[in-house]
Amino acid sequence: MKLLLHCCCAPCTISCVKTFYDEKFEPHLFWYNPNIHPYTEYKSRYDCLCQYADKEKLKLTGEGEYTLNTFMNEVYNGTKNQSCSRCQKCYKLRLEKTAALTSSEGFSGFSTTLLISPYQDHEAIKRAGEEAAAEHNVEFIYRDLRPLFREGQSAAREKKMYMQKYCGCIFSEEDRNKEAVQKLKFPNNSNNSRLSASLDDKIFKRLELLTGKENLNKLSNTRVLVFGAGGVGSWAAEALVRSGIGKIGIIDHDSICASNVNRQIEATTLTLGQPKASTFKKRLLEINPDCEITAYDELFCLENAHNFDIQNADYVIDAIDTLTHKLDLIETVSSMGIRLYSSMGMARRMDPSRIKISSIWKTEGCALARLVRQGLRKRKFGGNFTVVYSSELLENTEKFPYVPGQKSINGSIVTVTAPAGFMLASLVINDICESKGNPK
User: Fold this and answer.
1) Which residue positions in the chain have pLDDT lower than 50?
2) I need a surface site. Which of 57, 263, 314, 431 has the fewest CB within 10 A?
3) What percent of the chain lies above the pLDDT cut of 70?
4) What residue segments make up the domains of the chain, in order of their start?
5) Of 279, 221, 224, 284, nearest to 248 (Cα)?
6) Radius of gyration of the chain (CA)
7) Could you read off the pLDDT of 374-428 as tens digits, one per residue?
8) How far is CA 204 from CA 209, 244, 252, 421, in A?
C-alpha cells in the first residue's frame, strides 16, 4: 500500500518510516512545512530530509520554496475570528495539503511524522488529519508513535543529522518573549528607567570584577530552567539570578506549606498557601528587575513537557524528587542535547562537606542516585550527565507518619540543601564562563 508520509524533519521521520515499512506500507515522503522560520532553519531541515531520503532510497516530494507568507496569512489571519488555536490551524494547513496530494496522486492513505513528537498536541493532530481525510475522501493512517520518539532521536544523532532545537513557528518567538515585548510596549516611567540604569551599573559590579565584562554578558544572555523550587532548587535559582543569569524558568506545582519554611527560600510564614513558582518569581524580580523570569505553577511530566519550551534552554537544573518525573526529565533534556545538572537525595543528611560532584554513573552511597541509574538502564539510556550528591545517610532518623498513596517524607536541613543548590548553580556559571563564545 502506497502511503504519503508528511515529514516535519528527518529525525522524526526515521522511526516512522520503519514502523510503516513493518506494517507493509510503502512510504513516500512529503515535505510541506511553511511554519518553519527563519529561512536558515527551514533550509537546514529540508536539506537534511533530502539527504536522508537519498541515502535510504526513499521517494520525496517536497515544496522546497520558503513559504512563510502562506503560513502567516493562513494561520494568523485564519485564527483572528475563530475559536481554534494557532497550532490547530497550522496542523490543518499542512495536513490538508497532504490529503489533497494523497487524493490527486492515488495514494492509499496518508500520515504524518508529527504523531511521533511528545511535544505536539497529539489529539489536535489526529483531529486535523481525520478532518482533512474526510474532505478529500482519503484515509488518514493514525498511529500513536510517541513511544518511538527517543529511539528516533538516538538514531538521528548516530547518523549525525541536523537536530533542531525548537518547533520553528515564528509566533512562538513572541510567546517566549511576552514579558520583554510588554516592556517594549509599555516602558517604565522615566524615574524607574533611571533607577534601572543605575542598578545595572551597580548590582553586578563585584561579579564583573570576578568574571570580566564578556562573561557577564554571556551570563545575561543565558536561559536556565530549574525544575523543582524546593530545598535545593530554590537556592540554585536564587544563586543564578544573583549571578547575572538573564532568563530563568521556575517549574513547581506545589504550594508553600509550613514544613517548607526551614529550608526553601520562598517559604516564610507570610507566604504559606501560595504557589511556589509564582511567589518565588516576585522575590527574584526584587533582586534583578531586568531578569526575564517565567513561573510555571505546574507539574512536569511527559504529557506537558512542551509547555516549558525546554528546547530553547541553554541549561536545565533538575531538582525533582519524584523518581518517574525525574527520569522523564533526564531523558527529555538529554535527547535535545541540552546541558543538564541534576540533584540527587539531600534528605537525611547533616554534613555539607560530604556533598560531591560526579557523573551519575560514578556516585557512591546515594540511594536516589542508585534508583536513577537502575531506571535509566531499564529505559536503555546511554547518555551521561553531572550530578550533585552526598554519600552521607543518617540511619534511625524520624519520619512523618506514613500515609498510603503519598511519598515518604524525611527530615532535611537548609545547611545541606542550600549548598547543594549553590553547587548546581556554580556548575552552570562556571561552564558559561569557561566556555568559548556564547551559549547555543
Assistant:
1) 79-83, 180-181, 183-198, 402-405, 436-440
2) 57
3) 85
4) 2-173, 210-434
5) 224
6) 24
7) 999 999 998 999 999 999 978 766 555 544 445 567 889 999 999 999 999 999 9
8) 9, 7, 28, 20
Per-residue 3-state assignment (H helix, E strand, C coil) for 205-236: HHHHHHHCHHHHHHHHCCEEEEECCCCCHHHH
Which residues are CB-contacts of 177 (< 8 A; sequence separation ≥ 6)?
292
Q: Mention the CATH class of domain 2-173.
A: alpha beta
* Residue of 253, 232, 242 lying closest to 387 (CA atoms): 232
Homologous superfamily (CATH) for 210-434: NAD(P)-binding Rossmann-like Domain (3.40.50.720)
Amino acid at 59: K
The cell numbers describing 161, all together, are 543529522
- Residue 295: per-residue pLDDT: 95
Residue 87 has a pLDDT of 84
Q: Running DSSP on this structure, what letter comes out for residue 169? A: B
Q: How many C-beta atoms lie closer than 10 Å to residue 182's C-beta?
A: 10
The three three-digit cell numbers of residue 396, written as one number: 534511625
- Beta-carbon contacts of 392 under 8 Å, excluding residues fewer than 6 positions away, are 349, 350, 351, 354, 365
